[in-house]
Amino acid sequence: MDRGRLDLRFHQAGSTPSEESALDLEKVYCDHTNLPSPSSPSHQAFTSGNQHSESNAAYFSWPTSSRLTDAAEDRANYFGNLQKGVLPETLGRLPTGQQATTLLELMTIRAFHSKILRRFSLGTAIGFRIRRGLLTDIPAILVFVARKVHRLWLRHIQCLPAYLEGPGGVWCDVDVVEFSYFGAPVPTPKEQLYNELVDGLRGSDPYIGSGSQVASQETYGTLGAIVKSRTGNCQVGFLTNRHVAVDLNYPNQKMFHPLPPSLGPGVYLGAVERATSFITDDLWYGIFAGTNPETFVRADGAFVPFADDLDISYVSTSVKGIGEIGNVNILDLQSPINSLIGRQVVKVGRSSGLTTGTIMAYALEYNDEKGICFFTDFLVVGENQQTFDLEGDSGSLILLTGHQNGEKPRPVGIIWGGTANRGRLKLKVGQPPENWTSGVDLGRLLDLLELDLITTKEELQGLSFRKF
C-alpha cells in the first residue's frame, strides 16, 4: 500500500509513537486528548446503526472523575500504611532485608519511591538489571534518563541510589537506562515488508485470523485474536486496538478486511460493540501503583462481533506462520519476576509479519506535563536489534514461546504502540539505540471487555452453529 498516496484519507494504526507516546523529554510525555472531562459518564454510548450485535449501541469504558475523587483518600491511606513498614533510609549502606523476588514487590517499592524517581527520570519500569545489553537475574527498577553519564560528572543530588527499599526492608537494585530522544516524528513514508506471509495477511489469503489486516474508514491495523463474549448469546468476533477500530468522527464504527469500500476491495466484518482506552491503576493491577491520585493504565482494546452474514468458515483460530496457540497466559503479580521478564515472544502483524523479541520490562510508568501518571504493561525489544513491530501492526497478539518442544505459544498481550520514530533505548555501549514496542496485558483486557479467547476450530464451529 502506498502510504504517501493515502496519507490524507487513510493511515496506519501502528507502532509509531502517536500522541500517546511515552518518554518525550522536550515536549509532553503524553497528549491524552481522550481522557475524560469532569462531567464524562462512566460509559459513553452512541448509536451504531447496521450493527450486528446484542444491542444497537456500542459503549466505551472511561475512568470517571467521581471515582478518582473517592479513591484518592484510599490511595493516601494505602501509602500511609506502607510508610509504617519502611525502614529509615541510610545513604551508602547496603540493604540487609530480603531482595525482591516478585513483580508485586518491585511494583510496591517503585510506587513508594515514585515521587523521588519522577524528579530524576523520564519514566520507570520494573524487571531485571541490564548489563552490556543483556538481562541479568538481578531484580531492579529501571529508570529512564535522557543521557546516562558517569557519576563523576553529576552533582550528589543528581545521583540515584544504587538500591531502594520498600515495606519490611524488601529491596531491589536501581538500573539507569538511556532513552535517546529524536524529536517529534516526521511524516515520511514508513517501511513496508513484502513477503508471502504479509501479502496473505493483507488480503491474499482466503481466510482471516490473528495477524490479518483490518480496516475502519480511515485507519488500518491488525486483527489480534478471535474471541467470544461472556455475556448475552456469546457473540463471536475479534479483538483489536481501540485506536484501530474507533473514530468518533464517524457515526458507525465499522470494520472491513482488507480495505473499506471507499479505498478498495473488502468485506464488512462487523461494528465495534465495546471498547476502552484507559482504566485506573487499582482496577487494572489490583493495587495502587503510584502515589499520584490521577494514575491510569493504557488498556487499548475493542471488541467487534462478526456480522451475521459473515461466513465463519473463512475465520481461522490459528496464527499464520505459527500455528495453533494455547490458552491465555494469566499474569499474577505475585509470580516470580522471571515468569515474565526475559521471556521470548513472537508476533504476527500485517506490516512486519512474523517477528521475535524479548519482554525486557513490565509496568512502564511515565508522567505528562499536566501531572497525570500513565502506565503501559509490556516493553518488548526485538531480537538482534531488529524492530519487533512496524506501523500497522497495532492489535497484534504477543505470544510467549513454549519452554518445551511441542508446547503451544500462549498469548500474553496485544501490541498498541512503540517508539520507532520518536526515540530508542540505548541498552549497550558501542551499539546504536534499539526500537521498543509497548503492549497491553491480554488477560486483564479480556476481563475488562468481558471476552474469552477462542483457540480451536472446533470451539469456533460450535459457537457459530448456535447462531442459527
TrEMBL record:
It comes from the Eukaryota. Residues 98-177 form the Nal1 N-terminal domain. InterPro entries: Nal1, Nal1_C, Nal1_N, Peptidase_S1_PA. Residues 1-10 have a biased composition (Basic and acidic residues). Residues 1-21 are annotated as: Disordered. It holds the Pfam family NAL1_N. Transmembrane segments: none annotated. Residues 190-458 form the Nal1 C-terminal domain. This is Trypsin family protein.
